[in-house]
Here is the input.
Amino acid sequence: MHGEELINDYAMFKDKTHKEGLRDKLIERLRLIEYDEEFVVKYQPKISNIHHDFVGVEALIRWNDDQLGFIPPNQFIPVAEKTGEIHPITIWLIEHVCKQIKEWQVAGFNVGKVAINLSNRTLTEDTFVVDVENIINRYQVDPSLLEFEITESSIIDDEKIALMTVKSLRELGATIALDDFGTGFSSLTYLRKLPIDKMKIDKSFLDGIVEDSLAQQFLADVINLGSTLSLGVVVEGVENEEELNIIGQTSADEIQGFYFGKPMSSDELISWDTSYNEK
Ligand code: C2E
Ligand code: CA
Ligand code: CA
Ligand code: CA
Here is the structure.
């Protein structure tokens, strides 16, 4: 019994030092790397719920580090948020996306809106809106092609400033989507007041939904809530035809998920679009 506890303690200690070691390495690497060399951006298609048209993409960052290998965003974004590195990373990403939009336009490839995830630190950075405006002007990108995905937690931290940033982004002409809806703790009256255009329902709402009629009703009700608030509703994490059929019977506006396409490079997206149109 006592020995077992010691072993568990040791295992926990090892795990903790391993995690701390990795964290330190991540912090160091994030400071040193050239973003252009180590980050790539993948694009996941979004589809309309009614005619299944291709209506937009979400930009998702990928980091393949020379020394540490592939590090998923769920692991390094929280670290970058703590160190403040998330700000230059987000600016790099927005610039990368705007360049990409221009290239697509020159090639006659229409991807609709491009959604970009924003972290809490970004929304309270005083130069953020001006930085975005400068990038948009430099690349001559129509701001209505940009959508910013924010989360409840990213607003709550420093509400006044974050909300001002959100409003300014909308005034520029970009749209705002509330990501991971249903995982936060905001009251519904609070949500009603948020200056947003869309609500993205968290993929956990789809867990086990195919066999569970109560879960289906629940999802439909949450989607209706968004429609009642005059918000566009996006359902993410759609992985199979059964889930697609369930969502098809709701008032959701857009769908995103592996069923239609995984996050892809620009080249992969272009071939995906060609074969999607042939279907
Ligand atoms: P998120 O914003 O909720 O992004 C959706 C995540 O779900 C993506 O994971 C995507 O690959 C994954 N996904 C899409 N369709 C499906 C599906 O059908 N089934 C399942 N199981 N998963 C699906 P990813 O790319 O690993 O990103 C994880 C999280 O990391 C994102 O969650 C977001 O919070 C953050 N993240 C990713 N890229 C960025 C970025 O450029 N900036 C910021 N601030 N955060 C980012
Ligand atoms: Ca997102
Ligand atoms: Ca999400
Ligand atoms: Ca998320």
Notes: Residues 179-180 surround calcium ion (ligand 4) (CB under 6 Å). The chain has a mean pLDDT of 92. The CA atoms of residues 144 and 174 lie 5 Å apart.
